[in-house]
Design brief:
binds zinc ion; TIM Barrel; binds 3-methyl-2-oxobutanoic acid; three-stranded antiparallel β-sheet; alpha/beta
Length: about 525
């Protein structure tokens, strides 16, 4: 049961806009290396989830970022697509060029207002900050009438100075003012007081949208964002699974469910389709390599599990005894059996459509082949299995390294020996063998030989996609190669195969990243940069 019953849309003044920054602030988490196709896939899922704004990236920072923001602007329908920019002309031009093909583009520009940043990082004066903010908003407004301005590190800045800068931005036509708690330092009471004071000092704020952007360094990102919304803000900046710089951003699923579940006390709500939350969380976790802890609020696999006998007894008698939300409300019930061993291609296509994957032609043939392999080994193929297989198939890209096959001989009386064959980006196959401390180590060694590179394993995790001994295994590998942290995932009924797939993908991401980085460094040298990024 849910306490909510049928939820009516909140009146306009109580509607909170959800600004998702998974692909910008979230992507700044160490070890995340999403390529354009993966970013578009996440953005499409965010659109299905119903967020209002997608901050798709920071286009000036690299050709790769620019390309991804542009692809999202061109392909993803529904939400406003925002690009981040410092106050420099080159940043604003790049942000505009990247988002301009979106039906509803936004430029989000920022500059710090705290003394710490102004003195030590920007090495400039308060007057200059005001001038830069004014020029940046004016430049952005010349391109679009949807402009957001953020006074970075606002919560450690003098509120009167921040107010002066915000007033300038509003006068120049900013339509959203976002108040970042950049280093996760504030507390709910302090943040609410800060926003209330800004409302008093900047009369123009009444006519536009005030936004909250909180980091989780003290574990308060959701609480602070909530306090900001209660103080009058109507946009919340957040990321799926709370990923982001350092300890991360406000978790989208937590703030959205907090607003929905306790609407009785605050009256606020979003228009997010909460049944898509769990799937979005799994997709982001798979693609970023950042796993979701089992006890994570709302989307953790134990978020609705009851262990103690008293709780189980209560829930069996009446669910509301120990549950405040319903698993179906957040989409955590998607483990219903959807296909059996004899299901055909048509049934697979239908099931995938229901899950939001539109596959045809070669992609469908490939997904069907994979489904049959798995259906032969597993009695029942669930929605979670299908989602895992299709996501895994989408990771196979002709321009990267791909696992062709592997063999491993192992046992307690001999050193394991692995032979692997990897398809190179040129299409050629490279075969190699290696021994190791165990079969996984031997496979990883043979892959390094086949690809001709060194790598340092940082994280290796195995998770079962569903329950039971025939469950699909999902492996996440994080490694450092070519001076870059990168992650990869693999799914198979066999853990060794899933490990090999994950390792090849992580290596591909690291090596691809190195090539992209060389191009980026050349561009960065050319751009005269005065302010470091957020
Ligand atoms: O944390 C921060 O200050 C930011 C800004 C760019 C909004 O991410
Ligand atoms: Zn941030």
């Amino acid at each position: 049961m849910s306490y909510l019953g049928d939820v009516k849309a909140a009146p306009e003044q109580d509607r909170v806009r959800v600004f998702d920054t998974t692909l910008r602030d979230g992507e700044q988490s160490p070890g995340i290396s999403l390529n354009t196709a993966e970013k578009v896939e996440i953005a499409q899922q965010l659109a299905r989830l119903g967020v209002d704004v997608i901050e798709a990236g920071f286009p000036i920072t690299s050709p790769g970022d620019f390309e991804a923001v542009q692809a999202i602007a061109r392909q993803v329908e529904g939400p406003v697509i925002a690009g981040l920019a410092r106050t420099h002309k080159a940043d604003i031009d790049a942000a505009w060029n990247a988002v301009k093909d979106a039906p509803r583009p936004r430029i989000h520009t920022f500059i710090s207002t705290s003394d710490i940043h102004i003195e030590h990082q920007l090495k400039t004066t308060h007057e200059d900050v005001k001038g830069q903010a004014k020029a940046a908003v004016a430049m952005a407004r010349a391109y679009t009438d949807d402009v957001e301005f953020s006074p970075m590190d606002a919560t450690r800045a003098d509120v009167e100075f921040t107010a002066e800068v915000c007033a300038i931005a509003v006068a120049e036509g900013a339509t959203t003012i976002n108040i970042p708690d950049t280093v996760g330092y504030t507390t709910p009471e302090e943040y609410a007081a800060h926003l209330t004071r800004l409302y008093q000092l900047v009369p123009g704020l009444d006519g536009i949208t005030l936004s909250v952007h909180c980091h989780d360094d003290l574990g308060l990102a959701v609480s602070n964002s909530y306090a900001g919304l209660q103080a009058g803000a109507r946009q919340v900046e957040c990321a799926i699974n709370g990923i982001g710089e350092r300890a991360g951003n406000c978790s989208l699923e937590e703030i959205v469910m907090l607003l929905r579940t306790r609407r009785d006390v605050h009256g606020l709500d979003t228009t997010v389709d909460t049944r898509e939350l769990a799937r979005t969380s799994r997709m982001v976790s798979r693609l970023t390599g950042y796993s979701v802890p089992p006890n994570k609020a709302v989307v953790g696999r134990n978020a609705f599990a009851h262990e103690s006998g008293i709780h189980q007894d209560g829930v069996l008698k009446e669910r509301s005894t120990y549950e405040i939300m319903d698993a179906t409300e957040v989409g955590l019930d998607s483990n219903a059996i959807v296909l059996g061993k004899h299901s055909g291609r048509h049934a697979l296509k239908d099931a995938l459509e229901q899950l939001g994957f539109h596959v045809d032609g070669q992609e469908l043939r490939q997904a069907f082949k994979r489904f049959k392999e798995i259906a032969d080994k597993k009695k029942q193929v669930t929605a979670l299995d299908l989602e895992a297989i299709v996501s895994d198939e989408m990771r196979e890209r002709s321009e990267s390294y791909n696992l062709a096959w592997f063999e491993v001989e192992a046992g307690t009386r001999r050193d394991p020996l692995a032979t692997v064959c990897v398809t190179l980006p040129s299409g050629e196959e490279s075969q190699a063998e290696a021994t190791g401390d165990g079969p996984v180590d031997a496979i990883f060694g043979a892959i390094r030989e086949a690809v001709g590179t060194d790598a340092d394993l940082r994280r290796y995790e195995v998770e079962a996609v569903t329950e039971g001994t025939d469950a699909l295994g999902e492996v996440t590998v994080v490694l450092r190669a070519n001076d870059r942290l990168a992650s990869g995932q693999g799914v198979a009924t066999d853990i060794l195969e899933a490990s090999a797939r994950a390792y090849v993908r992580a290596l591909s991401n690291a090596l691809e990243g190195a090539a992209i980085r060389e191009a980026e460094e050349a561009t960065a040298d050319a751009a005269a940069e005065r302010t470091p990024g957020p």
